[in-house]
Amino acid sequence: MALEERARRHAPDRDVVVLRGDTNANVHQITSSIPRGALTFCFADPFKLENLRFATLETLAASRRIDFLVLLASGMDANRNEAEYVKRSSTVVEAFTGTPDWRSRWPHAKLNFGDFVADEFGQSMKRLGYQYEGLAATKAIVNSKNAPLYRLAFFSRNSLGMKFWYESLKYTTSQRSLF
Q1: Tell me: the pLDDT tens digits for 18-56?
Q2: Nearest-CA neighbor of 42 among 141, 155, 166?
Q3: Which phi and psi angles does 101 have, rounded to 5°?
């Protein structure tokens, strides 16, 4: 695997562990691989909402000092699949946000569905003790037609981590050109 090769080449003296497979299924193996006391950074980059369960982040947060940068597939998945996700039979939004009662708030929301889901996720992170100041604290990424694709959201329990996040937002654009 390319990651293992890079680790051997660039950090031969480092204790690098590469775990393959579904992060949601392997979260306990992941937490046991992180040294106690280590300040940890997790970048969660799910292709769609159902690829990331909030319980996974909850397990990581409970066991280690960890900051998260999460791609919230609010436009490219949530908005596009709203009709499917709001069905009573769907558990995708519940698993992604960790909120089984989200449907009671959705009819009263003054947001599009994707932003509602992103905010529900942020509120759940806040309940875990992470700083979250609403959607304005996330970075909306749009396509060339200004249609929302996703949001990047940073979550830290430490005010210094949040200071770094807000500083980085000053130097970003919504989307880089591909060419």
Answers
A1: 888 999 999 999 999 998 888 899 999 999 999 999 999
A2: 155
A3: -105, 20
